[in-house]
Amino acid sequence: MLIALLLLPVLTGLCMLFFGKALLCRVALPVMALAHTLLSALVALSVYQGNAPRALFGILAPDPLGVLFLMLASLLFLAVSVYAISYLREEERIGLHTNILDHGQFTNQPERRFTAFLCFFLASMSLVTMTPHMGVQWVSIEATTLSSAPLIYFHRHKSSLEATWKYLIICSVGIALALLGNILLSVAFYGEPVGESDFDQLSFFLSHADKAEATWLKAAFVFLLVGYGAKMGLAPLHNWLPDAHSQAPSLVSALLSGALLNCALLGILRGHQIMLAAGLGDISSQMLIFFGFFSLATAAIFIVGQGHYKRMLAYSSVEHMGLLALGIGFGGIACQGAIFHAVCHSLTKCMLFLLSGNILARYHTYSSFDIRGMRWTMPFTGALWTAGFFAIAGSPPFGLFVSELLIAKGILASKAPWLAVPYLLLLAILFVALSVAVLRMVQGRRPIDMPKTTKEPLTSVLPPLILGLAVLVLGVFVPAPLWSFLSKAAQLIGG
Questions:
Q1: Residue 326 belongs to some domain of the structure
Q2: The pTM is what?
């Protein structure tokens, strides 16, 4: 079952790459995504029941934390694959495109190549979430970079190429630092006997953490945090994120923000698990808290007055990665809130990026200052865009309100309750900044050159609608099995 989760997208992608026609690829993508989601659900059920599957001598051995991110990646990919049907059809119809920024003409990548790399991207993210081997996890996180770079360059123009190279360079520097962190981690455990489950490195490190050399272990976590933090989008290593999100197709941005950032977070969490087991959790927690507040402050600075609505969503991702780092750093109930926040943020941000694609296709501009009257020109997208804003800003009754409240409660219960003041202040600044841009786009008079209403394809509004409803339901009612699963995941990292 675990091997099938990897082979299914890989083989589908290879068939698309060498034999696929456009129509066939559009049909195969959601079919494969549905099969992958069902397999992921079976794995999650097995882990929940305490019968965690293993494969390849322990190289594949998911735990509740990994399975949580596996399910998120699979569900978001399913939503994106349905959205891609109308998106790719429209891209093929247009043919020769005009760049919004410099009005130069460009073409897209062949569709079969784009859909194939989408499948490879899913396979690499699946491997990240299922392996307890730190080296294999490092390789798979690097594979997510290599498989997603061609997706950012789907629109073959200068701006996309620049964003792709920036993404590759910054993430490659980060992954190189993470490699050094893995090497230092091995040095910290040098001399410890390796048992039969040598491929299950995480279990070995956790069981022998009390014997690790503390200095090397602390140095290893620093490099893991900085290296994977660059990929996660923690400030000040977030620079690739606004450019990549602004130039990538909206469905790719949805996966980058909703699923890829979680994979990098998982790499940091594995290091934090080992630090906790070694009795050095206070040190790793303080680092996470520092980068969490720094990311919140950075996002608040850049979102205020931001006119590019896709870059605005990118900086919002920096904000929420900071919130995750904060919750995990404070531990306890704040950590439980952070795990719940990861779920709700992924669903909401995927929803918003898909909607941004609808807006771009209708208004042909990235500037929120040039968009007015969405409630008239595209009422379904306008309504969902407004709901998505309230959700991502942490307003009740959406799930992010509950998670941010749990994080605040954890801060108040910590040794530094006064940190709740800057936490709430930064959230208030971000709420106001987002509301100014979003409501300006939805309200106002309808542009004269646009009809009052425009037909919106079902596949372009149904996925974000379902994602939005899921976040709304999670804000009102969390099923007991789901909360129990989230609690098990949080317990692994101090929750």
A1: yes
A2: 0.95
